[in-house]
Amino acid sequence: MAQTLREALGAKSIPLTQSDSLELIARLFGQRDWNTLAARIQSAGAASDVAAAAPPSDAVRQEIAVATAVLDRYAGYYQLSEQAVLSVTRDGQQLSIQLTGQRAVPFFAESRTEFFAKEVDAQIGLSPAPMARSRR
Predict the structure, then answer these.
(1) Alpha helices in 1-136 (DSSP H)
(2) ∠121-92-112 over CA atoms, to 5°?
(3) How many whole angstroms separate alpha carbon 98 and alpha carbon 106?
(4) Which pairing describes strands 123-125 and 94-99: parallel, antiparallel, or unpaired?
(5) What is the pTM of this model?
(6) Pairing of strands 114-117, 94-99
(7) By the 8 A CB rule, do 54 and 109 touch?
(8) What confidence tier does 68 reach under pLDDT thresholds 50, 70, 90?
């Protein structure tokens, strides 16, 4: 998965290190870092059991309402690598998140800091700390 991500972004002239791509994959599976995801995969027994390490599907996720003022605090551009930027905007009562070169995907709140996508199996935790993002 990490290699596919690197190749896809590389084709769009967005370099991504192997380490950065592994960390992004871990976050897509709801883990804080690659080491945590790798440990979960290993404890599941085999690489073919990656589904066991995957986060719960959106069928069991509970969308909650979060004040638009809270959502607005997450809006901005998050630098993931030298040429990969995660753009976060508020779109009504949810966030719209877009990685450089990819289409925007709506994310819905399951808490004030945790969000999930319904279109794809992805979730993200955000922090409104000013030093964690930059505004354009």
Answers:
(1) 2-11, 18-28, 34-44, 50-53, 68-74
(2) 60
(3) 9
(4) unpaired
(5) 0.54
(6) unpaired
(7) no
(8) very high
